[in-house]
Write a structure and sequence with these properties.
This protein has 295 residues and is an alpha/beta fold. A hairpin with a 6-residue loop joins strand 3 and strand 4. The radius of gyration is 19 Å and the shape is globular.
Length: 295
């Protein structure tokens, strides 16, 4: 059992029961008691890539209490796993990424319960955003409401041409409450974010790319392949450098330039005495592929 599997077991043994089996020589599947969320840890050359799959077909991956608990536990565990280098967040359900929060379940909640759920949703997406490794949302089909808010919490977004993205909450007399008003405006600008949220307009994959909502739009059905290609490129880089780069960008963007440059210096300093930095220099000099260990 790998480091990730062991850490996930010890962290979640009160909530999870695991069955481990090999799907192929390259993929170790970790199945949990949270049936609506599955985790795959790729192996061999792709070791370091972790895939989180939303798997609630009967509700188009709508996020209910059970799925939310699964996401929380998985994100917390990944964040403590030193061997994870990049995370792909995708759907096992054809033609849908995530339809948003489970409104049927929401309808049964009183005001206090609804407030607690939305706060938990917001904190879970903040946890996803704060993961120390790069994250990629793989979007095929619908990413609406809380589903788009979850994708916005990832570092990169890859979609298929038939993807449909939107924040329709104002049509339900509420607002995006899990970070959508803040992350969308920071990503695409205030004016476009206002128009999309005020009108609840849904955009297709090509339009999403044109406004900067996604990084790549590829032919329908090929988003996972493109995301895996990007994940593989990321996975070849120095793990500690990736973490420091993410921290420098995420925290620095909120600072004035002088403070941001000081943060960059601090992050760079943490890499100077690492074995990986020396390995990178040696590999360059010897014209070979570096072998990074995250040390």
């Amino acid at each position: 059992m790998g480091v990730f599997a062991i850490s996930l077991y010890h962290h979640c043994r009160s909530n999870f029961s695991f069955n481990y089996h090999y799907q192929s020589r390259r993929t170790l599947i970790l199945q949990s008691a949270f049936e609506s969320v599955r985790v795959q840890r790729l192996s061999h050359d792709d070791s370091g890539i972790v895939e989180v799959h939303l798997d609630r077909p009967e509700a188009k991956n709508a996020i209910g209490k059970e799925m939310l608990r699964g996401l929380q536990n998985i994100f917390e565990t990944i964040n403590r796993d030193a061997s994870a280098n990049v995370v792909m967040l995708s759907s096992s359900v054809p033609r849908v990424f995530c339809a948003g929060a489970d409104l049927k379940e929401r309808k049964t909640m009183n005001t206090s319960e609804a407030r607690f759920f939305v706060n938990s949703l917001r904190s879970t997406f903040s946890l996803l955003e704060a993961l120390h490794v790069p994250t990629i949302a793989v979007i095929e089909g619908a990413a609406l409401g809380g589903g788009l808010e979850m994708a916005l919490s990832c570092d990169l977004r890859i979609c298929g041409e038939d993807a449909v993205l939107g924040l329709p909450e104002t049509g339900l007399a509420i607002i995006p409450g899990a970070g959508g008003t803040q992350r969308l405006s920071r990503l695409v600008g205030k004016s476009i974010a206002k128009e999309l949220i005020f009108t609840g307009r849904k955009v297709g994959g090509r339009d999403a790319m044109s406004v900067g909502l996604v990084n790549y739009c590829v032919p329908a059905g090929e988003a996972h392949l493109k995301a895996l290609e990007i994940a593989q490129h990321i996975n070849q880089k120095g793990p500690l450098a990736l973490r420091m780069a993410k921290r420098a960008i995420n925290e620095g963007i909120e600072l004035d330039m002088e403070s941001a440059l000081a943060l960059e210096e601090e992050c760079y300093e943490q890499l100077l005495n690492t074995k990986d930095r020396l390995e990178g220099l040696a590999a360059f000099a010897e014209k070979r592929k570096p072998r990074y260990n995250g040390e």
